[in-house]
Structure formats: structure tokens, C-alpha cells
């Protein structure tokens, strides 16, 4: 009986030891994961937020700093020269037009007409183009007044929602300061901007030539045309776009301003912009909230409001329609919308000066704009 029992027990034990193990729950999960991986790779870019853009590189920062120092040093030497030379008939004040672009200059034929319609104006302006060197295909050089030497060699890549747009504008300003001491106003426009008046009308408006003699212009105090807004409902979010209280102590909330990306600055304020280091170290920081990150719309209004509020008009000369903006972009005008009535409407302003330029226009608008250039746009 004992043997039988032992044998039975042994047999039972052996039978149990060699039974098949239950299937692991990890196996179907692994198979499912492998099947899902292609879908994850496809959907991830559409679900996850985009990676933050790379910061402005140290070599680029050093190159900019060198350019800005040369501009401010030259300006300090110029201001010490006798004013009699500045009032001579051979040194009429000029307007520096600065084009900021990352595509072809779609409206270059219209701007060409703007600058060359009156041959007597050719000594009253200078042109500078900051073209993103990384754009593919490469930006085409239109020729004419937009010759190759008007494209600045210090241009760098620009990215929306980053301080690279501030840096690009500062490079343009510094280049224009160095290039010609007679540049007295500095107007920033984009590849999607168009003129609303003739060059002569714009020049007369800035320099008040109907009231003052050209020889007297250098002694007059002019204002910059830059939008400065302090009561926008989104201003708190914009202020904290880099994180709460990150702008302190350089910029308190009550000092923070909003405004248009495009402006017309006096030479005095242009020097102030390229000589700034204090506010730049804050505005160059990356944002943690992309939906509130528009550094180029804050840096210039904040800096000039803090340093010389009485020297600014508080409004811009470039009309922008924000009534139906999409993803931070203003209304884009398309070919069917172009008419003489639109031009007259865009000129109207609630300020002491009407709008001189307007954006944002689709490249398809060029033909109808050229057709009405002489009879409407440049007929003041």
C-alpha cells in the first residue's frame, strides 16, 4: 500500500511538472504594439506639439554684436561733425527702405514703379533686403532697384514666433546706419506689403517739405511711427509667454507694450535699437507658450516706449486687417478684392497721418495692382 501510494504520488508529481505553462499576457500586447508602431510614427507629428526652434547661435550673436557696435561707433563720430555739412544741398536726407523676406519679392515690379516713377527721387532713398539664406529654392534677385548689392550679406535664417525676426530687423537697421549717414528715416516692410501712395507723397509727409526747407530738416525733431499698445486684452498672456515673471526686472508688466511688426523709425531711435543690450537679453529668450509668442511685435514698442515715449507717434503707417485673422496671420487680400475702392479704404486712418502701406497681399494681386498703379495708387 505504501509503495502504491508513493508510486501514485510520484506519477502525479511528474505529470504536474511537465504540463504546458499558460500563455503569457505580454505576447499579444507586444504584437499589438508592433502593429501600432507605424500608426504612431504617422500620427505623432499631427498630435504632439512641434519641437522648440533652435535658439540664436552664439556665432550669429557675436557677428550681430560686432555689426551693431560698428554702427553705433560710426554714429557717435557722425554726431560730432559740424552740422553745416549736413545741411548742404548735396546731402538731402534719405529714407532707408528695409525689406524683410523669406520668399521672392513678389511685388518688386510695383515697388520699382514706386521708386522710379519720378527720376528726381532717386537720391532720396536707399534700399536694403534681408533675405533668409536657407529658403529653398533660393530667393530670386529681381534686378532694377533691387539689385544684388541691396541684399545684405549678414542675413540669417528667420523663424516665426522667435526673436530671429527682431534680429533681422536690427541687422537691416545697422546696415542702413553704416551705409549712408544721410539715411534719416528707416522704414521696415515685408514681401507682402504694397505702397498706397507715391514716394514723393511719403517723403513730403515724413519730412514736412511743404512747411520746411530741406536745409532746415536736420535741426527738426521728428517722431517715429511705431504702434504702441498698452491695453490689449491679450497683453498679459504675451508678457508671460516665456514664463511667469521671466521679463523681470528689466521689463515690468506695466512697461510691456504691443504693436505692429512694421514701422518707420527716426535715425535717433534706430541707433537706440541697435545699441540696446538690456532688453534684448530678455526678448531673445524662447517662449514656452507658442500661441502667445510674437517677439517682433513687442520688442520695438516696449523699448521705444520705455526710452522715449514722447518721440513716438504711437501708431504705424502700415495698414493691417485683423478682422478675420487665422493662426496669428492677418487677413490676406486676394485678386478679386483688389479695386481702387480698396486702395482708398486702406489709406484711411484715425490718426493724424493716413496709412502709407498695407499688408497682407497674395502674389496673385500683382497684375491688377500694376494696372491701377499710375491712375490710382501713385496719384495722390
From TrEMBL:
Presence of keyword Membrane: yes
Keyword list, A-Z: Glycoprotein, Glycosyltransferase, Membrane, Transferase
Taxonomy of the source species: Eukaryota, Viridiplantae, Streptophyta, Embryophyta, Tracheophyta
Protein name listed in UniProt: Uncharacterized protein
Membrane topology type: Single-pass type II membrane protein
Molecular function terms, GO-annotated: glycosyltransferase activity
Record's subcellular location: Membrane
UniProt cross-references to InterPro entries, sorted A to Z: BC10-like (IPR044174), Glyco_trans_14 (IPR003406)
GO CC terms: membrane
Domain of life: Eukaryota
Signal sequence coordinates: none
Principal cellular location given in the protein's record: membrane
UniProt KW Transferase keyword: yes
Amino acid at each position: 500500500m505504501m509503495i502504491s501510494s508513493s508510486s501514485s504520488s510520484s506519477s502525479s508529481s511528474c505529470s504536474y511538472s511537465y504540463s504546458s505553462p499558460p500563455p503569457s499576457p505580454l505576447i499579444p500586447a507586444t504584437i499589438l504594439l508592433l502593429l501600432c508602431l507605424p500608426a504612431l510614427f504617422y500620427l505623432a507629428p499631427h498630435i504632439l506639439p512641434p519641437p522648440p526652434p533652435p535658439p540664436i547661435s552664439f556665432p550669429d550673436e557675436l557677428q550681430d554684436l560686432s555689426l551693431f557696435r560698428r554702427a553705433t561707433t560710426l554714429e557717435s563720430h557722425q554726431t560730432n561733425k559740424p552740422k553745416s555739412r549736413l545741411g548742404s544741398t548735396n546731402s538731402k536726407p534719405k529714407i532707408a527702405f528695409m525689406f524683410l523676406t523669406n520668399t521672392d519679392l513678389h511685388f518688386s515690379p510695383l515697388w520699382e514703379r514706386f521708386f522710379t516713377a519720378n527720376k528726381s527721387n532717386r537720391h532720396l532713398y536707399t534700399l536694403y533686403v534681408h533675405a533668409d539664406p536657407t529658403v529653398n529654392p533660393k530667393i530670386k534677385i529681381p534686378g532694377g532697384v533691387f539689385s544684388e548689392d541691396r541684399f545684405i550679406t549678414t542675413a540669417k535664417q528667420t523663424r516665426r514666433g522667435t526673436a530671429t525676426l527682431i534680429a533681422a530687423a536690427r541687422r537691416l537697421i545697422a546696415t542702413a546706419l553704416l551705409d549712408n549717414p544721410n539715411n534719416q528715416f528707416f522704414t521696415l516692410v515685408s514681401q507682402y506689403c504694397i505702397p498706397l501712395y507715391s514716394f514723393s507723397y511719403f517723403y513730403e509727409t515724413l519730412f514736412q517739405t511743404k512747411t520746411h526747407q530741406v536745409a532746415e530738416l536736420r535741426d527738426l525733431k521728428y517722431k517715429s511711427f511705431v504702434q504702441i499698445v498698452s491695453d490689449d486684452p491679450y497683453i498679459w498672456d504675451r508678457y508671460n509667454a516665456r514664463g511667469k515673471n521671466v521679463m523681470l526686472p528689466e521689463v515690468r508688466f506695466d512697461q510691456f507694450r504691443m504693436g505692429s511688426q512694421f514701422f518707420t523709425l527716426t535715425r535717433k531711435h534706430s541707433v537706440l535699437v541697435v545699441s540696446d543690450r538690456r532688453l534684448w537679453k530678455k526678448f531673445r529668450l524662447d517662449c514656452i507658450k507658442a500661441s502667445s509668442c510674437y517677439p517682433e511685435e513687442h520688442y520695438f514698442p516696449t523699448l521705444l516706449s520705455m526710452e522715449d515715449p514722447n518721440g513716438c507717434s504711437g501708431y504705424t503707417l502700415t495698414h493691417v486687417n485683423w478682422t478675420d485673422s487665422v493662426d496669428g496671420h492677418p487677413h490676406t487680400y486676394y485678386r478679386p478684392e483688389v479695386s481702387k475702392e480698396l486702395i482708398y479704404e486702406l489709406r484711411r486712418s484715425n490718426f493724424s497721418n493716413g496709412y502709407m502701406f498695407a499688408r497682407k497681399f497674395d502674389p496673385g494681386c500683382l497684375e491688377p495692382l500694376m494696372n491701377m498703379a499710375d491712375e490710382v495708387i501713385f496719384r495722390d
